[in-house]
Amino acid sequence: MTTDHDPIRIRGWSELRHEDNLVIFVVVKLPDWLRRDDEAVQQDADIEGSAARWFGATLDGTPTLGLVVAELHGDAPRHASWVLPDAPQQLVGSASTLPHLIGLVADDEQAIDQLRSGYSLDPELLNRATHVDSHSPSDSILRLAWGLPDEVDSVEIVDAGDPEAIARETLPLRSRVALAEGEILDDNQVLPMAWRPWHYDLVEQQRGLRWTWPTQQIYFGLQHPSAVIRRQLVPPDNATAKSLRGYLATVRRLSRSMAVNGGGSIRWKWTRDDGDLPIEVEGPHEDALDAMLPHLRKLMDPNEESGFSFNRVQKALAVEAHRAGDVVFKDELRRWKSAEKGIRRIHHRALQYELAAELGDELKGAAIRGPLDGVPEIEPEALIRIYMYGETLHVKEGLQQIEEWDRDPTLGPLMRQEARGDAIALLHFYGAFATYVAEWLDAGQAEAA
Question: pLDDT tens digits, residue range 341-376?
Fold first, then answer.
């Protein structure tokens, strides 16, 4: 990462509000990579691939409003930064508002005279500004907006004279969450849903679902089907259409089931007489896995005799995309295949942890990868198969391991809940992919009509 210069002052500023939209214009010295040339102005093209972030800082002990603009891509993405010591509270409050645009105006005396708070904005001046999106404000600017900079220790407030501290402020701008949606995790760490899969409409209680699919979509960079331009699909043959219908029916059945949508908390109580032993455990119904796993196997097992596993359906779509010479669609299908392998291998909570870490959250310790400290981590697919073939289907493989877990009144329910969570994560992935499946099936039905 390269830095053009140490933070320098913002020379002037003003706001433009229209209905709910906000643009904050600032006069600054611009590096060449952020300038708009004459051709760009004629084409009304703004700088793409850059984003801005306001932050609260101190400079030589003075409370300071900081602004950093960073490139989002490239091997050595650049950034530039500016500061405004003793910034007016009005500007600090506006900078804390999301979302809004920032208009960067190249520094000259005329611009400074024209662009002062309370002055009218000159159209020519606005037209030559470089516009960038502002998102992902740091906690430090909220501290500044609350008027508490003196009460914040040096870890939470940015040292505007430290180039490395300024560079760290650019990291959330380049996170997968920001690149996908332009938003950050809120206080409850609920990810923005970049697009809503059709199977969500089948579920009455959706409080827990926002933890699942958005994490997968953003972590693996899966595109909204409408964003992937595809050539006309040739209708599937009868055998393939049967597989597609089976895939959709299984997703629909599982999405509506209580095995997926029932309660998921586990609680226990202690008494003095019992010491540290739990005497009461409340978890999912003991039949939850039994009701879910036989149907999930149809989707996740490529050797399942039903013939409508994700592996087979995805491969059939890839063959059709290859036949049509649709390289873009083939690449997207390959991305979905890779993502499914990742979901089988990585626990959902670990994906969430990594996305949060990308946003610069001060997370303590390592990612949660198991139900309890000291319990060896088991990959999602392996854990699901232990229950699938240990007590649900064949009652053979894995049974000894399940019996060992169940001898502990806390570990047994926790491992079942862990397996259930991994199974639900797979289901939501398969449900989102069903958008492509339904579209292909609809192509055959439309031709038959």
Answer: 999 998 887 887 787 777 665 554 455 555 555 566
Is the overall model pTM greater than 0.70, yes or no? no
Q: Quick check: 49 and 73 in contact, CB under 8 A?
A: yes
Three-point CA angle 129, 131, 132, nearest 5°: 150
| Strand boundaries in 86-172, DSSP class E | 100-106, 130-134, 158-159
Widest CA span of the chain, in angstroms?
81
Q: Which residue has the tokens 């998102």?
A: 135
Closest CA to 132 of 80, 85, 91, 169: 80
Measured distance CA(33)–CA(71) in Å, rounded: 9
Q: Is the peptide bond before 294 cis (omega within 30 degrees of 0)?
A: no
Concatenate the DSSP letters of all residues of 108-123 into one string: -HHHHHHSSTTSPPPH
Please report the DSSP string for 187-225 in residue order: TT-PPP-SS--GGGGG-S--TTGGGTHHHHHHHHTPPPG
Q: Which pair of tokens denotes residue 31?
A: 């590096």
Beta-carbon neighbour count of residue 419 at 10 Å?
25
Give the pair of three-digit tokens for residue 271: 């008494």
Cβ proximity of 351 and 212 under 8 Å: no
Phi-psi category of 352—alpha, beta or left, where left has phi over 0 and alpha has psi -120 to 50? alpha
The Cα 289–Cα 293 span in angstroms is: 6
pLDDT in tens, 239-252: 999 999 999 999 98
Q: Are 359 and 174 in contact (CB under 8 A)?
A: no
Query: Which 3 state secondary structure label does DSSP give 231?
Result: coil
Where does 31-114 have alpha helices with state H?
38-42, 89-95, 109-114
Distance CA 130, CA 105 (A): 7
Which single residue is written with the structure tokens 């990868």?
Answer: 369
- In angstroms, what CA-CA distances link 185 with 68, 165, 359? 20, 21, 8
3-state secondary structure of 288: helix
8 A C-beta contact, residue 31 and residue 50? no
| 202-234 residues labelled b (16+ CB within 10 A) or e (exposed) | bbeeeeebebbbbbbbbbbebbebeebebeebe
Sign (positive or negative) of CA dihedral 145, 147, 152, 155? positive
Q: What are phi and psi of 97, to 5 degrees?
A: -85, 135
Alpha carbon distance, N-terminus to C-terminus of the chain: 58
Residue position matching structure tokens 């040339």? 37
pLDDT in tens, 381-418: 999 988 888 777 766 667 788 888 888 777 888 888 88
Give the DSSP letter of residue 75: S
